Amino acid sequence: MAVNASAHGICRDCLAPAAGTGKRCHSCGSPRVLRHPELEALPLAHIDCDAFYAAVEKRDNPDLRDKPVIIGGGKRGVVSTACYIARIHGVRSAMPMFKALEACPEAIVVKPDMEKYVRVGRQVRAMMEALTPMVEPISIDEAFLDLAGTQKLHGAPPAHVLAAFARRIEEEIGITVSVGLSYCKFLAKVASDLNKPRGFSVIGRAEALDFLAGQPVTTIWGVGKAFAATLERDGVRMIGQLQRMEKNDLMRRYGTIGSRLYHLSRGEDERTVKPRGEAKSVSSETTFNHDISAASDLVPVLRALSERVSARLKKADIAGRTVVLKLKTADFRIRTRNRQLADPTRLADRIFHTGLDMLMRELDGTRFRLLGVGVSDLTDAAKADPPDLVDTLSHKRALAEGAIDSLREKFGREAVETGYTFGRRRAGQPQREE
């Protein structure tokens, strides 16, 4: 953003102070010099890993480094992540795979490895938490950080600490991040998107109004394509137009979102960084290679997904009270069904049978392209699966499941299968776990 001769600065490569207005670092000659009048006063950051899944795969397979890479499922799946080379060809996240391959036929498609991505994401998160306890995760690969009051701890202002952090991520983990620094969450997130990859952008208070005035309304959280079309019909395309409107008028036209438009268009965002130590849900889902409708095809997949969810719950020593079933029809309509249990569970057997009951109610000939199952309302595992006085066999099933878990831990997940999955060809493999 704005730069002047008195602006504070730092070289993002050698981390040396960068005074003046020169385009290169006086110490190492790097052009990656960051300067801004408010650089040493802004505490709130948004950090986003660049093309995270693809970056991890390129790190682990150097042969992919200079090639377009798409992380996703088969021809019926969607793009989870595309590297920046593939993005130049028009490939985008959530794009159907067949369209992505039409846009970039030379792309190399890699199936997602969520366990690996989660492992790397936790490494990045741990390094964030070493900077400040005020870390609010947004997803596996991005988070807000509030570094207010940490200058004495680190011996440097937040911007310098974040520049060193970004360099450490590259050196120690082998991926890159983009950093946005500002005085509020909204503008920190906007800043992190400005110069990807390996970006570090700053939006200060003095420039916020002028900067926002020149941005499209879609820059504001919650303004997607549909709402942007509504605003355009009213003649509003740019945030600067919103800045000239009264709050009451915006709320009269657009309801409660009108208040958000009014405040965010002026760079006003009072939300604080709220650390979240626990996940809200655990789930697994799969997109099928072909649309299917038969119970004989869907049930084995539901069982396999339930076992995956159960394994993650047990590993984290947590349980969930509500079982959630997710279905996506051939025409991309999503059906979500919930069932609250009397007690929390982490058993695959309970998750599966609860999901099965909900699934059977949906089997009316509709063809589905996706099936998922998960649990929410998470709690400590100590409260899970007490003996059932009505279902006297539940305890025996729990013991049997524990024995299966022990065998799988020793010999691998394929060592033991239930009758639901044994010898059954699965229609798809889980592409995303949340």
TrEMBL record:
Q: Which UniProt keywords apply?
A: Cytoplasm, DNA damage, DNA repair, DNA replication, DNA-binding, DNA-directed DNA polymerase, Magnesium, Metal-binding, Mutator protein, Nucleotidyltransferase, Transferase
The record ties this protein, via PANTHER family, to: DNA POLYMERASE KAPPA, DNA REPAIR POLYMERASE UMUC / TRANSFERASE FAMILY MEMBER
Give the HAMAP family listed for this entry. Answer: DNApol_IV
Subunit structure as annotated in this protein's UniProt entry: Monomer.
Q: Any idea which GO molecular function terms this record carries? A: DNA-directed DNA polymerase activity
Task: Tell me what organism the protein belongs to.
Answer: Nitratireductor thuwali
Mind telling me which Gene3D superfamilies this protein's record contains?
Answer: 3.30.70.270, 3.40.1170.60, 5' to 3' exonuclease, C-terminal subdomain, DNA polymerase, Y-family, little finger domain
Catalytic residues (UniProt) = E142
The entry's free-text remark on the cofactor is:
Binds 2 magnesium ions per subunit.
Localization, per the record, is: Cytoplasm
Ranges where the UmuC domain occurs: 44-224
UniProt EC number: 2.7.7.7
Site positions (Substrate discrimination): Y53
Function comment:
Poorly processive, error-prone DNA polymerase involved in untargeted mutagenesis. Copies undamaged DNA at stalled replication forks, which arise in vivo from mismatched or misaligned primer ends. These misaligned primers can be extended by PolIV. Exhibits no 3'-5' exonuclease (proofreading) activity. May be involved in translesional synthesis, in conjunction with the beta clamp from PolIII.
Which reaction does this chain catalyze? DNA(n) + a 2'-deoxyribonucleoside 5'-triphosphate = DNA(n+1) + diphosphate
Fetch the Pfam families from UniProt: IMS (PF00817), IMS_C (PF11799)
Instruction: Give the EC class as a word.
Output: transferase
Family label = Belongs to the DNA polymerase type-Y family.
- Cofactor(s) the protein needs: Mg(2+)
| Protein name listed in UniProt | DNA polymerase IV
Question: Residues that bind Mg(2+), according to the entry?
Answer: D48, D141
